[in-house]
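Input set for joint prediction.
Command: fold jointly, output tokens.
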Amino acid sequence: MSLPPQLRPSLTPQELEFIACNQETIEIIPLFGMDRIRLISGIYGPFVPPAKTRVPLWLATNLKLKMKCRIIPPEWLSVDYLNAKVEEEIAAEEFSELPFRYAEIAKVLLDTASDNIQQADKVRFLLKELREARQAKARKGLSRIDFSLVDLPNLCAMEINEIRPYFVKAMGVMGQLTAGMHPPGGGGGEGMEIDN
Amino acid sequence: MEDGGDDGRRPQPVGSPGSVPRDLDRELDRLDDERMLDKLTRYWIDERNSPDILVWQGLVVEETLDKLQAQAEMVQKLQEDPRTSEEEHFRIVLIQTEAERVKFLVRSYLRTRLHKIEKYAAYIIQTPEMRGRLSVTELAHAQKYHALLTAHFHSSALSGLPESMRSLDDDEDESGRGTVTRPNKAQGLFIRARRRCPVSLPNGGILELEKGAIHLIPYEAIEALLRLGDVECL
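tokens >
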């Protein structure tokens, strides 16, 4: 009741978006004049068109929705960059490097500021391809699961959230299965005895 | 004491390693305020993900509430003042928007703890270490909640059972049956190392975590590191 059941297993995608909007910053070109503003998270501005200024993502989308700014999308949110990423993702065995909250940032920007992103439809399509390539890799990673540790370089926030239920469950089951095989305090499984 | 988290250690931006590079001047310009919100966010995410109840982060919560209150007072003063300009009014709207976001964060943190306190009330009351992790009001709530629940069980069912079967504080036996709900410390957790640190694994091995590395590890292996702020949940 204090925490609704749907929120208990992990953070929700909406909450991840909330975190990204608080923690990530982005450049905007303001379309209005205003002095510096002091917020709890910091001091931003001054807003003097056409000078660029860097603000938290939530502030950027808030101003954008009021048509008070243009958002400058990050370098990686472009057709050229994503094209190269998709190729790299398909060719390589490992996950390629991306901003940790790329999925959230891309979603927020495509929802609110698609007119500031060049070829937004193509960008959307490439992000989907990237996501599928990475998802397939994440699923393969499930076979490497050990009862004590899995190493997951370059995995992003949204992807972790997506695989969390299966991975955590799988690890729990593996732990139960192997529990009887390790003698207490022992380092290896030499004495492969199973009680019961 | 452990509370206060990583105060006194070198400040570390919690932001993602792959995010857009920020220049140093701007980073220094931001004062301590941002670190406070980032800290609260980290504690919130840790609390949401870990099976166990973590140490109450009273300092950060109080600091955040103080900031919110100071800001609310300032906003009210400005709103009552007829000389406040149009620009100032727009600024107030933005300040209030942010305040609502911060309030959500504080509320969700408190609610998450409340949920765990009610779920593990009996266990918390039995275990001195757990009691120490709660704030004064949280502990009072845990005790009242547990007393209510016990009284209710007794009056509705237990009083009809033989004396030997009425106990509500039986510890879990080998088969995992018991009346006290405990957190499952073997549960896997997605974590990221905030600095280089060693982890002792349940199978006896030791692993050196590199800064920024992401792993899936059972909670019991990183419980202490989480409390020190050496690792964070994802």
